[in-house]
UniProtKB/TrEMBL annotation:
Belongs to the peptidase A1 family. GO terms for molecular function: aspartic-type endopeptidase activity. One of its GO terms (biological process) is proteolysis. This is Peptidase A1 domain-containing protein. It comes from Prunus armeniaca (Apricot). InterPro entries: Aspartic_peptidase_A1, Pepsin-like_plant, PEPTIDASE_A1, Peptidase_aspartic_dom_sf, TAXi_C, TAXi_N. Residues 1-231 form the Peptidase A1 domain.
Length: 277
């Protein structure tokens, strides 16, 4: 097992589609043939699966594993093929155990869908889901809290712990559900005790679940078996990783100096863990 420490980008200018320079520092982990995981897997260096655990505290950080994290509580939902992005079949959303009145087609029709994306900071719901979601949260906390609008976000002045007043939210996928604590759908804004709904209204027809939802969880992208798994987890803790015997260390044949360095590290063991500081 190899441990590497990496730093995070704090500023990047420009629109991603406008220049290749805006992609500096980004590792691609899509299902496409040019992604890091696809290329390493095609060379027999790693299995076609990776996992991450993103810390949700103010310091951030976490773990990225080129391999499968083993945790008994992980549940899985099948990927929707054939896509480069990681699409799941989101079937419904429940607030306080009550299914919201959302047409399932808002998540599953041909030009729609739900993406798991660690490259997105917040989360985005299509309008048909966003409006009833915000209404349900506001209804659940009334009359304990007085809601108000700040910069087009639904916000609340909170004087007690979030768990005492805000409901649990359940994202119900095919075969598994992801239960969100208040901290996983709210964001803290400027001002003492001001919390706002972190889900934004999607501009297009795709629902995107980003780091707001994915934090404090082990997320397993099992591309080989076309499924994604998750479980709540303390991301400052160690993780257990599956290491198949078929991925024994072997010598790299790359001639590129930078490539030789990377591959020599990767081939010591199929697991590479990045402590994201």
């Amino acid at each position: 097992m190899v441990l590497e420490t990496y730093r995070c980008t704090t500023y990047e200018s420009g629109v991603i589609s406008s220049s290749l320079s805006t992609l500096d520092g980004i590792l691609g982990f899509s299902q496409g043939p040019l992604s890091v995981i696809s290329q390493l897997s095609s060379r027999g260096l790693t299995p076609k699966v990776f996992s991450h655990c993103l810390k949700g505290d103010e310091k951030g950080g976490g773990i990225l594993v080129l391999g499968e994290v083993l945790e008994p509580s992980i549940v899985y939902s099948p990927l929707v093929p054939p896509r480069h992005h990681y699409y799941l079949n989101l079937q419904s959303i429940a607030v306080n155990g009550k299914i919201l009145p959302i047409d399932p087609a808002a998540f599953t029709s041909h030009d729609r869908g739900t993406i798991i994306d660690s490259g997105t900071t917040l989360a985005y719901l299509v309008e048909e889901a966003y409006v009833p979601f915000v209404r349900a949260i506001t209804s659940a906390v009334s009359p304990s809290l007085t809601p108000f609008i700040s910069e087009e976000n639904q916000c609340y002045q909170v004087t007690t712990s979030l768990a005492e007043v805000f409901p649990a939210v359940s994202l119900n996928f095919a075969g598994a559900s992801m239960v969100l604590k208040p901290e996983e759908y709210l964001t803290q804004h400027v001002g003492i005790g001001v919390w706002c709904i972190g889900f934004q209204k999607a501009q297009g027809g795709v629902t995107i679940l980003g780091d707001l939802v994915l934090k404090d969880k082990i997320i397993v992208y099992d591309v080989a078996r076309q499924r994604i798994g998750w479980a709540n987890y303390d991301c400052s803790s160690h993780v257990n990783v599956s290491i198949p015997s078929s991925y024994a260390p072997h010598r790299s044949e790359s001639r590129s100096p930078s490539g030789e360095m990377v591959l020599s590290v990767l081939t010591r063991a199929f697991v590479v863990m990045y402590m994201l500081a």
